[in-house]
Amino acid sequence: MMQPARSTIIPQWRLRISGSLVYTWRGCWWRSITDMPKSYASFVYETIARSGHGNTTTPGDLSSTTNADDGVTIEAEVGITMAWTQFLHSPNSWTRVSRQSMNFAAHNAVVQPTTVNLTVRDDGEGNVYLLVPYRSHGIRFSVEFQDDLYAYENSCAVAACDFIQDTVPGSAHYVSPLPVQDHPTVAIEPHNALLVFPIPFPPPDLIPNLASPNTYTVHPESVPTLSHITNSVVYFGPGVHYIV
Fold first, then answer.
1. What pLDDT score was predicted for residue 210?
2. What is the mean pLDDT of residues 125-129?
3. More confident: 155 or 143
4. What is the 3-state secondary structure (H, E, C) of the chain?
5. For 195-222, how does the pLDDT look when each residue is reduced to its tens digit (9 = 90+)?
6. How far is the C-alpha of 225 from the C-alpha of 112, rounded, in Å?
7. What is the pLDDT of residues 49-74, one digit of tens each?
8. Domain boundaries defined on the chain
């Protein structure tokens, strides 16, 4: 079960070092097995606890700090992240996943749920390839790496207690060494999760007519106020959209 501690979408492609935050996923792309020379980059989105801004009450106002419980315990301190990517495809396709920080091999990657039973290979250069079958209803899976798991330790013998960590000295919930008795491991999850959502192309009747007066187009970057829009269709064009 994923911890309810992620907040604010931070879209990054070819995730990179930005300030004090190290984004883990270097990239993801897919290509059709019937057109092997052609591949496409798949945009990766990533979330971090509290957006890296601390416990605040007003989005965008970094001075609005609070001690109120927001459901985040150790996630911000130890750098728990969640990333996801989505792409359209019609034939079966190969999807390549690579990481920014380290190389890995196919045997180190676990696809969840295991019932999707994907073929997993590597190229010996730190990239993993997943053969994604086409399904009319789409397919959803996560890619987990056995060298990138985090064990959540409870601070007491009952489930209502907070998590504790021994990763970042001087930060919240730091305990070192972690006690063994009466401090059970309650979950083992990816430190940096990656979810992949391959979906089929939409049918023609769901593709908006951009020339129609009933269609309002929202261009990439800052999303304007839409409360006054009376168009029956609001179309968000390709690119990054964000709300200030």
1. 95
2. 85
3. 143
4. CCCCCCEEEEECCCCCEECCEECCEEEEEEEECCCCCCCEECCEEEEEHHHHCCCECCCCCCCCECCCCCCCCCHHHHCCEEEEEEEECCCCEEEEEEECCCCCCHHHEEEECHHHCCEEEECCCCEEEEEECCCCCCCCEEEEECCCEEEEEECCCCCCCCEEECCCCCCCCECCCCCCCCCCEEEEEECEEEEEEEECCCCHHHCCCCCCCCEEEECCEECCCCCCCCCCEEEECCCCEECC
5. 999 999 989 988 999 999 999 999 999 9
6. 39
7. 877 777 777 777 778 877 777 767 77
8. 7-150+188-201, 205-244
The residues with which 87 forms a beta bridge, in sequence order, are 198
Share of the chain above pLDDT 70, in %: 80
- CATH of 7-150+188-201, picked from 2.60.350.10, 1.10.1660.10, 2.60.40.1180, 3.60.15.10, is 2.60.350.10
